[in-house]
Design a protein that fits this description.
mainly beta, 1 helix, six-stranded antiparallel β-sheet, globular
Length: 96
Amino acid sequence: MAGRGCLAAQAFVVRQGESPDGTSDGMETLTIERPEQITWDYDREADTLYISFGKPRPALTMDVGSGVLLRYIEKTGELVGFTVIGISSILKSELG
């Protein structure tokens, strides 16, 4: 890994399963509990950023498009992490 880190966490916004116009987008509601820590790894060769909330644990993955994969616990809907594939390309296009 080319980068690795750990951050203290406070509170997070919960992503609701609705589109901006209030209609359902067919996605599950995912929540983020207050993790004790947030860890991240960056794989330079794969240009992929991995973010985990709390201790790593088995989870399902949901591809939400644009190279973003969410990791969540199916039974509770708790978001435990996410992956961003092609992060440098995304940042370059967003930041100019």
